Amino acid sequence: MAMTYGYIRVSSRDQNEDRQLTALKAWVTPENIYMDKQSGKDFNRPQYKKLVRRLKKDDLLYVKSIDRLGRNYEEIQNQWRILTKEKGIDIVVLDMPLLDTRRGKDLMGTFLSDIVLQVLSFVAENERTNIRQRQAEGIEAAKARGVRFGRPPLETPEHFEKTVHLWEKKKINIQEALERSGMSESTFYRKARMYRTPKK
């Protein structure tokens, strides 16, 4: 008996999977939905591997979009071949109704599906490349305008030099010095180097 499965991938721990989950639940029972929360940079993904091992001939797999199968043109093509040719399953891509391998099992249907897959996987990879390029250009433009990235530098308290000297003379311990300066231990030691009394 053929089974129906769903696969979700979100590219980082912070990304929300609700959009994909809502779409798949209309077609797949929740216990048959597999999800990985990590980068698609490679296919060392535990839930994806578990799903592929479980898939049998004539099973049906739903994904929200084609780029859930890979991060670039070659990976998407390779996974599609493994799933449809080697495993013998059907795939439905919800965002692209033309990518439904249940339709047109004849030579023409397979041919059209393969063409659509090639175009869409190329577009998916190209869009990611464009996004990365736009991000890099945006960062460079912001830097040129004087925008600084990362945490703002920590202000050194006015009494910091005095705190350093008291700590050097062992009149206060490191914990008290940190509390007075409002710094972490590593920051305190780094900044204290500029104020320490030179050794004779």
Secondary structure: number of strands: 4
Whole-angstrom Rg: 28 Å
Helix content: 40-55%
> Which CATH-level-2 architecture of the largest domain?
3-Layer(aba) Sandwich
Which parts are unreliable, with pLDDT below 50 for 5 consecutive residues or more?
Answer: none
CATH topology of the largest domain: Rossmann fold
End-to-end C-alpha gap: 86 Å
Largest sheet: 4 strands, parallel
Q: What's the shape?
A: elongated
| Succession of helices and strands | EHEHEHEHHHH
CATH class of the largest domain: Alpha Beta
Strand order in the sheet with the most strands: 2-1-3-4
Tell me the number of structural domains: 2
Oligomer: single chain
Indicate the mean pLDDT.
80
Proportion of residues in β-strands? 5-15%
If helices are DSSP runs of H or I spanning 4 or more residues, what is the number of helices? 7
CATH-level-4 superfamily name of the largest domain = Resolvase, N-terminal catalytic domain
Structural class given helices, strands, pairing?
alpha/beta
Task: Provide a compact summary of the structure.
By secondary structure, the chain is α/β, with parallel strands linked by helices.
Question: Any descriptors?
Answer:
200 residues, alpha/beta, Rossmann fold, four-stranded parallel sheet, 7 helices, elongated
Describe this structure in words.
The protein is elongated, with a radius of gyration of 28 Å. By secondary structure, the protein is an alpha/beta fold. A four-stranded parallel beta sheet has the order 2-1-3-4, with helices on both faces. The chain is 47% helix and 10% strand. Helix 3 runs antiparallel to helix 4 and helix 5 packs antiparallel against helix 6. It has two domains: 4-127, Rossmann fold (3-Layer(aba) Sandwich), CATH 3.40.50.1390; 160-192, no CATH class. The model has no long low-confidence stretch (mean pLDDT 80).
